[in-house]
Design a protein that fits this description.
By secondary structure, this protein is mainly β. The chain is 12% helix and 40% strand.
Amino acid sequence: MSTRFCAMLRRTLCFAALSFSAILVFPGRTLPVLADPVSQGGGSGSAPASAAPVTPSAGAMTPPVGSSPVAGTASNTTTGMLASGLAHAGNRIFLEPIIVKDGDIDNQLTLMPAFGGMPGGSSAFTTPVMLEKRLTHHFSVRVDTHYMALWTPLKTYAGFQYAGLQGKLLLYENDPHEIFTTFIMRGITPVGGSAVGQGNPFTLYSYLVFNKGLGDLSSKYLRPFALQTDIAGIVPFGNGPMPLSDFMGTYDFGNSFRFDGALEYSLMYLHDIEGVKMPDFLAHLTPAVESRTLVNLSNNGYYGLTEGYLSYEMNYQADWYQVSVAYQQPYGADSSFMGQRYVLYTTFFYGWLLKKMGYHSTPY
């Protein structure tokens, strides 16, 4: 009996050794039985092992039949961003949006200074500050605040509007079709007061975010298009106007529904993935149009009123940062805040810096 047991043990150890050797020989592969069907291939929030050129592979987008091969073998902006651990879906690196809720599970620091004019000679300067940390492949947390200075002909108001905390959960990702969906829960509480537009003691936001790249279309000139959308329920606890940071006027909308959308065209995707030659500067640009619509759901005299704004943008994407400029035009029910504003948006992907310092910015 002991002889049979020893023989079985030897066979078991031999099989384990062979399996371990296979893993060493093929370090970039994962046994299908053991692979996580969500994280395999590095969808939104995952990172490749190195800065190898972007090529169709298991888990990455496979170009449709008849499409151009991935551009060249040299490193480009896309490979640099993927190597830094930036969230993606297949070979698609989505724009960091200004209006639509960012669905990426990422490590990033975002600043968004904006200047706007209002009727009556008033103007405002605002800048949110947001710091997000990815904790796992599927989850991140973010802290944020918002500074505002409001200049009127009689008086100047300035201060921080609120402090916010949010959690972001990746629900679904599909690399071949460049899709991911996330759920976000966010709460804000005032730290400045109604003088700078925040009168509610606490406001709760819940978002469902859906992103889709069109890399599975037949034409290489259509594949750079991508859509980003979110729907949100907003529940304020208390009386007072919605934050002016939402650019929604001064009505107390109360319980509200919000829809945001973005249409973008990535010249970086056209250059790096589709192989269309262009000057290097152009290969970093992504023009986009975004919109926001807010609908009041409270029976407070404004039920059904709708407000929103459009944002016309040009975005420059690089390995570890994005810079955007935008012109925004509001529309809707409240004529007291029908001005325009100009936005300079900057976000830094500090996972790249952590990697340069020798830290693993994407352990999951």
